[in-house]
């Protein structure tokens, strides 16, 4: 079952769901609209390789906005800290954002029960597009789980701002020893 | 819970779910295959900016089909009017369509309980690809909600054909006054 | 309801869910991490047309990996055979993969109850990116259905390796006679 907006609101009040900062006017019929944080990271050396730590540069979105260019990946993050130990989250672009030609994730819409932090977004635009910090860019949904819960305890826990991939740690450790490997 | 195809069929008959026109042979094990409408819209001035109304041009897909080009966003719509006051919808490309290199939404797969209308699709192709009006292009799924329902009452309600973004209205009104802001 | 990782593990043991090969360490809080198979297919004649069989070339990913290039679609597959006659699947890229600029499906994240086979992935990268066979690339989720079940019996059943689109069969048969048309 997907939580309705009124149910999300009630679970935020009982702290079963964390959304901070939280504004009731950002509640939708079955999701919550989150905002874009101020920092962006871009990779600056190619080809990218999952086996190594790929270097990044940081950009702060200025007050007047920042124009994203096609054919580039921009790692951004939500302004909000979000998560739950009781419900599983997924997220999507607002349709108003997608209608401008912008992806906010790359076929990667799933979160984990127990992750609490800012969420890294993958911005990818088809046409040049101006974005603004604090704009309502995406929607988080919450789903009731079936079964016993083992909480997320992975490498991105408690993230602050956009996080580049840490997949190279999988290869360092050897895949067979990794328990939670999001 | 996700509704099975047989359950979608039964809810269409009781009018708890609206799909119009509706054909039983488009029912899948846990979704319904919808069709591509005849009209396409493309933006014609860049960079796009969420704060202003971005102008568009209209294209009607001819009988012999229309070749989509890479690196462009095409706004299209479903042929069907679809929605429900009881179940939450999400939608996806048919895998047969994605295997041709075509996206039908840009990380924006969520609808709202209470929206009833044609659905705007965001078409984006990797390679030149011919499309046809009326082709079965995507799949809608329906999810049982948990909690009290406040129906969608937003700016795209009852849409007819593809709708460009109306996100500039958020900025006009000031974000803090917007209640439903999909 | 979405199955938790512990519930996926229990359903794999009762064979209500098939994941083969299966490794407990690839279980996440509410999904299972699957691996990339060794074969890739690419189309080699354009524009693509859903009404005809579009020809492909095969690539085997060598031991040292293979560098995907932007602006191309690569059809790949999971290493695992996966499916269920009892739960509906969806799948996503691992966030660690998406943070490298790689899509693993093109807005097509839904599977069908009753499909059992390897899953075709649509790989699309923003920047040149090295990939490795056997790398944990995506996540499958399982959802409890509501309603009577009619199992998938479509044209991709039991797939082995990446499968190009078979949508041209829709046009041959005439759309109105197709019952299951994923």
Automatic annotation (TrEMBL), chains A, B, C:
Keywords: Hydrolase, Nucleotide metabolism
Any one GO biological process: dUTP biosynthetic process
Gene3D superfamilies (UniProt xref): 2.70.40.10
Lineage per the UniProt record: Bacteria, Bacillati, Bacillota, Bacilli, Bacillales
Pfam families according to UniProt: DCD
NCBIfam families per UniProt: dCTP_deam
Annotated EC: 3.5.4.13
Protein name: dCTP deaminase
């Amino acid at each position: 079952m997907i939580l309705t907006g009124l149910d999300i609101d009630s679970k935020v009040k009982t702290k079963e769901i964390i959304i901070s900062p939280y504004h009731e006017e950002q509640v939708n019929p079955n999701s919550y609209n989150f905002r874009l944080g101020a920092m962006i990271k871009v990779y600056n050396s190619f080809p990218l390789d999952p086996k190594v730590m790929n270097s990044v540069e940081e950009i702060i979105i200025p007050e007047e906005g920042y124009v994203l260019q096609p054919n580039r990946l921009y790692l951004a993050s939500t302004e909000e800290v979000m998560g739950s130990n009781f419900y599983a989250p997924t997220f999507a672009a607002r349709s108003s954002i997608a209608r401008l030609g912008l992806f906010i994730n790359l076929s990667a819409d799933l979160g984990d029960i127990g992750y609490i932090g800012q969420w890294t977004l993958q911005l990818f635009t088809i046409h040049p597009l101006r974005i603004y910090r604090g704009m309502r860019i995406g929607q988080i949904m919450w789903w009731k789980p079936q079964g016993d819960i083992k909480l997320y305890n992975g490498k991105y826990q408690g993230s602050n701002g956009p996080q580049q991939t840490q997949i190279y740690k999988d290869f360092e450790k050897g895949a067979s020893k990794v328990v939670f490997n999001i």
